[in-house]
Amino acid sequence: MAEHTIKAFDDEMDRLRGLIAEMGGRAEAAIESAMLALQRHDRNLAAQVVADDRKIDAIEAEVEKLAIEIIALRAPMANDLRDVIAALKIVSVVERIGDYAKNIAKRVPSIATNSRTMEPISLLPSMGQVASEMVHDALNAFSARDAELALAVIDRDTVVDDFYNSVFRTLVTFMVENPKTISECAHLLFIAKNIERIGDHATNVAEMVYYAATGQTLPDRDPSTTPATED
Amino acid sequence: MTEEQQSLAPANPKMTARDVKVFYGPKEAIKGVSIDVAMDNVTAFIGPSGCGKSTFLRTLNRMNDTVASARVEGTITLDGEDIYAPSMDVVQLRARVGMVFQKPNPFPKSIYENIAYGPRIHGLAASKADMDVIVEKSLRRAGLWEEVKDRLQDSGTALSGGQQQRLCIGRAIAVEPEVILMDEPCSALDPIATAKIEELIHELRGRYAIVIVTHNMQQAARVSQRTAFFHLGDLVEYGVTSDIFTNPRQERTKDYITGRYG
What we know:
The structure holds two protein chains of two kinds.
Chain A: H1 7-40, H2 43-74, H3 78-107, H4 123-144, H5 147-177, H6 182-214
Chain B: H1 3-8, E1 13-24, E2 27-38, E3 42-46, H2 53-59, E4 70-78, E5 81-82, H3 90-96, E6 97-100, H4 111-121, H5 128-141, H6 145-148, H7 161-174, E7 179-183, H8 191-204, E8 209-213, H9 217-223, E9 226-231, E10 234-240, H10 241-246, H11 251-257
Parallel strand pairs in B: 3-8, 3-9, 6-7, 7-8
Antiparallel strand pairs in B: 1-2, 1-4, 4-5, 9-10
Helix pairs in contact in B: 4-5, 4-7, 5-7, 7-8
């Protein structure tokens, strides 16, 4: 894309993109670390994820400040305006994604059983992997203004939803058969739900990227494919 | 017009232009512009210097007739009537299609006389009482009455720049025009005076078809419902203002309004 006549404007937009890329990278790492901590039952790593969430929150605040400055001082138009608005909305969503990763990490100490003795846990890392890749691709799509990649992210949300439904059934069955594990299984169910929400939020990011890149909003998706959700 | 431009054109146009070309000597300043101007809209013409937006604006009330080397081709109609037809009375046309210029240019006469001049030569007032009514109504519509009602005999040139510009708008209004053309009406004004003119444009909308040429894109965004982007004598894009400023279709429009032009 051609540069702005005012170079400082380009610098500010680059900085905005850079901050969002960094924030996305941190959110992605938080999901991965939280899942790893769950698998290995690594309390230290889990605590690290919780602590690192503050940095994600700090970047959100920084992006908001910068975006408001750009709107006030540069009066961005057209694709620039869409980028700034998308950036503002994306950071609040990524902040939520970070919170979900933090919530997963917080539950790690409550789950004493390891994956070898508890089959439902084994599905969660793969589910987390898909969700974290969605976050990764959604933010890459923002950096590259890639509407196609954004659409591909949106398509992948059903994979996470299918995982969730599968984990849900498995956990319920497991709880019926092993009532002593109900407390831990309840935690796992919340973790699965958190990952499912991460997938939804990555989808939201992708929708904003699509809007920023094309100026068109996507029609609402069929809600029947999405599991019942509560925020 | 392309099909897409046609579909974006306002219904019930007040003025239409079809394949309008303007030449200054051998130079083609406007290269075949077709556009419809609606009654209930403020239409903004934007574009870089030399893009032809002012030249095109001036074809709408035959202001280019006063430029010896200028030649206009194509068709421009007002209520379906060809304004370049030999039968068209240019003085009458300019009463119906009024104009406000970049620099406020009140006559070096009293505030009252600035407003009364047009109605008098067009024979719109039968008596002094009639004229008083026209002067008050015009100054009220121009948002200037409260500021000048106690000094109507003061010279128009003694007013501030913003007041002078509103006086000029009042002068254009006084002859009951149908269309008001504004050629960068705020470029010589400070932000407060500019805001007052913009508020006035907003109030006048609907009563007159208003076409405004502006260098200030924010102003176009603020005051207009439709925006036309001109570049190098072409009409590049014409559409609903909010679309032009959030999602322009043409690369050239986007580069201009986002500050990437040139």
